[in-house]
Amino acid sequence: MRKEELRTPCYIVQKEKLEENLRILKRLREETGCKILLAQKAFSMYFLYPFIGKYLDGTTASGLYEAKLGAEEMGKENHIFSPAYKEGEFDEILSLCGHIVLNSPSQIRKYKERIRQAGKSPGIRVNPQCSTQKEHAIYDPCAPGSRLGTVREQLSGELMEGIEGIHFHTLCEQNSDALEVTLKAVEEKFGCWLPKMKWINFGGGHHITRTDYNIPRLIRCIRHMQETYGLEVYLEPGEAIALNAGTLLTEVLEIVENEKKIAILDTSAACHMPDVLEMPYRPPLKDSDLPGEETYTYRLAGPTCLAGDVIGDYSFCHPLAPGERLEFQDMAIYTMVKNNTFNGMKLPDIVLEEAGDCQIIRSFGYEEFKRRL
What we know:
This is Carboxynorspermidine decarboxylase. GO terms for molecular function: diaminopimelate decarboxylase activity. Keywords: Decarboxylase, Lyase, Pyridoxal phosphate, Spermidine biosynthesis. This protein is about 30% helix and about 25% strand. It is of the alpha/beta class. About 40% of the residues are buried.
């Protein structure tokens, strides 16, 4: 199919752009010997897992279902971290994952020996108490009162005996300067255990495939941990893998006016791109500009009953009309994995585009809505 034949709304993942990102990550792996995992929480289009697996070392999960998906669809290294594991699921997690990261002293006491007896590698997520982000406090694992990771004062030699790896995840859409600062804090607080570890996981939030990302600094950070402590280094980016590799195609349903022109679309911020409201942020839109920059400015909004289902204000060089199609950019990440059917909204189709040809991977209808209720 061609793009103009697709029904809206739909997510379109561009395979060529995905491969551009994967090639950057592959070069980093080859140059440093580090290992890179797909963080499925950002992008879980498992149809592409065999393709992604040609470039990366495996997957990382936040719970049992992601662990099963990674094992079934990519079948390479499979890591997991959860703030707390459910006892009834833990044996299955042990069967699926090679690296299991624990979050607290009580979780270490409960599960460390079971992990070791199963021949798997136990790790501990640490909290270096080093915040490097200010824009998105909701995503700061080092914020006061954070439930994510163990602070230095709660660890002891007895607890760390048998732990093979240290994991930290403190970044969100950041450059390698933030990693460098965080790594110094990790060494200052947890350096006494680093020589005893087999591996260290730098977590996610690294925007490695962004054009302004400082890869040489990242390489220095990786090599420092390898050469100083003899550690195997893991990174688990999510966004960087599918950054700018997907769009959301939508149609204008109606134009209404109330102090300004409002275009009602067949896509919803609340249902199809929840981060727009949660972060919040203004998603890029092809062939548009900031409000007032072009002649015609519209507020773009969804069709749900939520008054705040607003995507943002955009300007265009021509007036919008019902039936016109718009294309939001960078919509592969945190969309499919977070969308919902609030108000009975239809889930967008999932489409793969390659060399101008579009293949519908999944379509959704009424049954998906009904099954969830």
